[in-house]
Design a protein that fits this description.
Layout lengths: L3 E3 L3 E4 L8 E6 L13 E6 L6 E7 L1 E3 L2 E7 L5 E7 L5 E2 L6 E4 L9
Antiparallel strand pairs: 1-2, 2-3, 3-7, 4-5, 4-8, 6-7, 8-9, 8-10
Length: about 110
């Protein structure tokens, strides 16, 4: 199972994530440095960044100095990741998200 280390303290395993497969995301980004920011939530969405579909939030668990969450990939499309803390602050990689294409041969469009 390959893992990818992305800028901003984000790792994703496996890479590429597969439809129907469990994907594990680790976050040690800027929201973790702020005191009282727990809990951290993973935000996922699919498709074009400006018209994401299938958006949902996944609670993350603290593991030392980082947070971990897992979820099953629902769609064959571009997967986008962002993070939210308890104060409502969002780390979305400067509105670029952390994005990757899932490993299927067909794309779904909303």
């Amino acid at each position: 199972m390959a893992r990818v280390d992305l800028p901003g303290g984000v790792t994703v395993e496996p890479n590429p994530p597969g439809v129907g497969e469990e994907t594990v995301v680790t976050y040690a980004g800027k929201l973790t440095a702020e005191s009282g920011s727990e809990p951290i939530t993973l935000i996922i969405g699919y498709g074009p960044k400006d018209k994401m579909f299938g958006k949902r939030e996944v609670p993350m668990q603290r593991k030392g100095d980082h947070y971990v969450a897992s979820f099953v990939v629902d769609y064959s499309d571009t997967l986008h990741l962002a993070f939210k803390d308890s104060h409502g602050h969002i780390d979305d990689n400067e509105q670029q998200y952390w994005s990757m294409v899932t490993n299927s041969n067909s794309l779904t469009y909303a």
